[in-house]
UniProtKB/TrEMBL annotation:
Transmembrane segments: none annotated. It catalyses: 2 Fe(II)-[cytochrome c] + H2O2 + 2 H(+) = 2 Fe(III)-[cytochrome c] + 2 H2O. This is Peroxidase. Residues 180-372 form the Plant heme peroxidase family profile domain. It holds the Pfam family peroxidase. One of its GO terms (molecular function) is cytochrome-c peroxidase activity. InterPro entries: Ccp1-like, Haem_peroxidase, Haem_peroxidase_sf, Peroxidase_I, Peroxidases_AS, Peroxidases_heam-ligand_BS. It is found in: Mitochondrion intermembrane space; Mitochondrion matrix.
Length: 372
């Protein structure tokens, strides 16, 4: 058996013998990250800033009345020009596929290192999600374009606690492929996590550029798991999503677990936290959920095994009629959820990125490990 086949079989192994989900696909988990990457040479910096420019793309220059913003815009332009000279090549889809392949390999290294449930996939997805979910459609700020979580104070925002783990993993990959922007790298990591762990194809395309501290977004733009459905609507409506899309995106909790040293919450959402399936929705409806009695923040646990958890924001999906009808639909039809989730996630990863920056008018579908 080839090494790739061994890796694929390992990822598909069910997480818990106590109870396997109805649909068992590939395995992965989820984790979080928060440090500013180490300084690099000017060549590497310009290559990172100008990943899109290397491909001959016109960059959006940030403009503002503030001196710092003007300096950032000037640096973006000069960095794009320097990148053409420093990199001296135009990355193709095949080049980005190589980055994807490397991310997939690194994801599995978590098993040897005893990290969570044996995959870095969930934490890489969380990094991509949190880097993109800061978008504000009214002001046009936030989103994945500038990869601003590299800087304080955004790296220290409570919602990003623990994401230094994912950023450090991605920094190692960036050192191998210094021409790719952090925004492209992080979102490609989210795509890889979903596809390698049994989920749907997530269309993606490169073109994000790396900004500066002047682009850092304010705290409070990401969901707070301790709140309810009004909060969910406030956060997701700001990004441009409707009730159906809020539920579809919430299904990402099929992956991963919470950690007391990060969010304060504890435990996995499903019995197979390294497998993408609609089990999250089925469990929400079929399990008896009770408030956990412990010293941590308010969360629910399943009455039967007492090993699963749901956040107040998760439980809100079955307490609100508009949300619940979509929970029911996705619990019955995984293919429907895969389709809607893929569309919503692909859109999420492009929030805040000007169309003119993308290297292609069409989105790409990257090949998963099993397809090679």
């Amino acid at each position: 058996m080839s090494f790739a086949a061994v890796r694929a079989s390992i990822r598909r192994a069910p997480f818990s013998a106590a109870r396997a989900p109805r649909v068992i696909r590939n395995n992965a988990f989820r984790k979080y990250s928060t440090d500013v990457p180490p300084k690099q040479s000017n060549t590497a910096l310009f290559a990172g800033l100008g990943a899109a420019a290397v491909g001959g793309i016109a960059f959006l220059v940030y403009t503002s009345s503030s001196d710092s913003a003007k300096e950032a815009g000037t640096a973006l332009k000069s960095g794009a020009q320097a990148a053409r000279v420093a990199a001296n090549f135009v990355p193709t889809k095949e080049d980005y596929q190589k980055v994807y392949n490397r991310i997939a390999e690194v994801m599995d290294e978590a098993m040897d290192k005893g990290y969570d449930d044996g995959s870095y996939g969930p934490v890489l997805l969380r990094l991509a999600w949190h880097a993109s979910g800061t978008y504000d459609k009214e002001t046009g700020t936030g989103g994945s374009n500038y990869a601003t979580m590299r800087f304080e104070p955004e790296s220290l925002h409570g919602a990003n606690a623990g994401l230094h783990v994912a950023r450090e993993i991605m920094e190692g990959i960036h050192n191998e492929f210094p021409w790719i922007s952090y925004g492209d790298l992080w979102t490609l990591g989210g795509v890889c996590a979903i596809q390698e762990l049994g989920g749907p194809k997530v269309p993606w395309r490169p073109g994000r550029i790396d900004g500066f501290m002047a682009h850092v977004t304010p705290d409070g733009r990401l969901p707070d798991g301790a709140l309810g459905y009004d909060h969910l609507r406030q956060v997701f409506y700001r990004m441009g999503y409707n009730d159906q899309e809020i539920v579809a995106l919430s299904g990402a909790h099929a992956l991963g677990r919470c950690h007391t040293d990060r969010s304060g919450f504890e435990g996995p959402w499903t019995f197979s936290p390294v497998s993408v399936s609609n089990e999250y929705f089925r469990l929400l409806l079929e399990e008896k959920w009770v408030w956990r009695k412990w010293n941590g923040p308010k969360q629910l646990q399943d009455k039967g095994s007492k090993t699963l958890m749901m956040l107040p924001t998760d439980y809100a999906l079955v307490q609100d009629k508009s949300f619940k009808k979509w929970v029911q639909a996705y619990a019955k039809d995984q293919d429907l959820w895969f389709k809607d989730f893929s569309n919503c996630l692909s859109r999420l990863f492009e929030l805040g990125v000007p169309i003119s920056q993308f290297v292609s008018s069409d989105q790409w579908v990257m090949k998963s490990t099993d397809e090679k």
